[in-house]
């Protein structure tokens, strides 16, 4: 991606602060907050700083996500993790020739994309969702089904911050008809997979203001959307019912949220509880 191809240059600051109810002796942590470089997106700089400071091991996990793993082996009652990145984005490459339903049903295709067709404990459907998928995912092509399912979930599930937790099952979300972007992405994935369309969960960031001026720092958000395969991967944001574009920054992909959680950790010590504060600031440059 050359300089003339850049549509947006985004500076992202993602701060996570854990405060413990007492002093802890050690914590063991993984952060997945580094945007990827791929067609349509180039990460010019990414860095994760912690306080207390700690050396880190960086590696790629099974799903291709960069992981920043670190231990804090000194007494502390607060842990701060700050990820900063500078990313160039532009519309992705032209889509491949779409595959039809016959191609998706081929055993070789299903073997290749088997991990994107299976459910997990968080995304296990019930009979109601199976029947719903058969009804909603009808389409002339798998791509038509992807857009129809995304539009359906967007209209059926109300976006309500705090309505659910990260461990909510997709059946609970459907019964409540409300959730956050993770829940909306999970429900979209379930319906697509039930219809036979390979689909994966995408975690990253969304710049919320399309016409924000250069240098204007805005409160952004960690975000989730989906990609389905119909001859090539197509990104779509069912929370906003729109294709993923240059305001979306990809950090990680997986079967569902559990594969790509921005932060995971364990601690030992006197604390019995902890509180979490997260802020994301995005500046278009």
Characteristic key phrases:
single chain; 285 residues; alpha+beta; Immunoglobulin-like; C8orf32 fold; 2 domains; five-stranded antiparallel β-sheet; 7 helices; 21% helix
Explain this structure to me?
- This protein is an alpha+beta fold and 285 residues long.
- It has 2 domains: 3-90 and 261-284, Immunoglobulin-like (Sandwich), CATH 2.60.40; 101-206 and 218-259, C8orf32 fold (Roll), CATH 3.10.620.30.
- It is 21% helix and 41% strand.
- It has helices at 101-105, 107-112, 127-136, 142-156, 170-176, 181-194, 257-260; strands at 8-31, 41-51, 56-60, 66-72, 76-89, 158-159, 178-179, 199-206, 217-219, 221-229, 233-237, 242-243, 248-254, 263-269, 274-284.
- Strands 1, 2, 3, 4, 5, 9, 14 and 15 form an 8-stranded antiparallel beta sheet that branches.
- Helix 5 packs across helix 6 (181-194).
- The longest helix has 15 residues, at 142-156.
- It is globular and about 60 Å long.
- The two termini are 17 Å apart.
């Amino acid at each position: 991606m050359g300089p003339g191809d850049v549509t947006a240059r985004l500076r992202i600051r993602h701060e996570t602060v854990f405060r413990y109810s007492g002093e802890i002796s050690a914590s063991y942590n993984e952060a997945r907050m580094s945007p990827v470089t791929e067609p349509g997106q180039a990460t010019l700089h990414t860095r994760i700083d912690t306080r207390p400071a700690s050396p880190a091991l960086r590696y790629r996990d099974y799903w291709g996500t960069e992981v920043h793993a670190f231990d804090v082996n000194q007494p502390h009652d607060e842990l701060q993790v700050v990820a900063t990145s500078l990313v160039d984005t532009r519309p992705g490459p032209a889509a491949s020739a779409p595959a039809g339903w016959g191609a998706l049903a081929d055993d070789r295709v299903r073997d290749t994309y088997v991990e994107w067709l299976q459910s997990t404990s968080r995304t296990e459907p019930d009979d109601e969702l199976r029947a719903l998928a058969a009804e909603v995912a009808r389409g002339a092509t798998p791509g038509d089904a992807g857009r129809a399912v995304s539009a359906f979930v967007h209209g059926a599930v109300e976006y309500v911050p705090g309505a659910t937790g990260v461990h909510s099952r997709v059946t609970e979300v459907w019964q409540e008809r409300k959730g956050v972007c993770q829940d909306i992405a999970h429900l979209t994935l379930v319906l697509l997979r039930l219809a036979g369309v390979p689909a994966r969960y995408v975690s990253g960031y969304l710049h919320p203001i399309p016409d924000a001026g250069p240098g204007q720092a805005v409160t952004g958000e960690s975000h989730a959307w989906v990609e389905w395969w119909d001859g090539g991967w197509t990104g779509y944001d069912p929370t906003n019912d729109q294709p993923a574009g240059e305001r979306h920054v990809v950090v990680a992909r997986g079967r569902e949220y559990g594969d790509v959680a921005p932060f995971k950790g364990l601690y030992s010590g006197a604390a019995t509880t902890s509180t979490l504060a997260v802020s994301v600031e995005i500046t278009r440059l």
